[in-house]
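User: Fold this; tokens only.

Assistant: Input:
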Amino acid sequence: MSGMDYTQIGRAGELALALYAMVSSDGEVEMFTPVADDDHVDATAGRRRGVPAIAIQVKTAPKVDRDGLVEARASYPAGTVREHPAFLYAVLLLSSVTIEAMWLVPSPDFNRLVYRTISRGKEILEFRADPSKADKFSQFRVPPLEIGQRLLAVIDSLQQHVPLPAIGGPAGLVLAVRRSR
């Protein structure tokens, strides 16, 4: 991947995440890619035959840095960093076609644990983690063949706690329960 630019590396990470999620969940995780990535959402995901329940910002590193750590950065206009359990960061170490290490971090935890700087009206979140040793991100490291099951666990935990007014919208939403006969 040494000849690829950052956009290509990022897209490769998004595709790898989708592949691993689908295969490791036996097709139960469905991922959707927005037409434009202008709001820090690279993918949304939900259960098959359901609606998307989570938004994911994918960050891909093609190699570890000189200290053996995976580095990733997210930059937002100051004061607009997302803070919601349904917004996740997926940080991948992808030097080839195999995900070597991955972290799936809910944004409240990501925002709390990363190094933050503000420069020129931008808030920059800097992630650094070891792909094999214990550190502050270890609890979020996911074995690649468990990505789908981990995503399903997050999706299920969030869908059980969605308040009805949150999905009602301004015009309201009619909810119906079909009773079996």
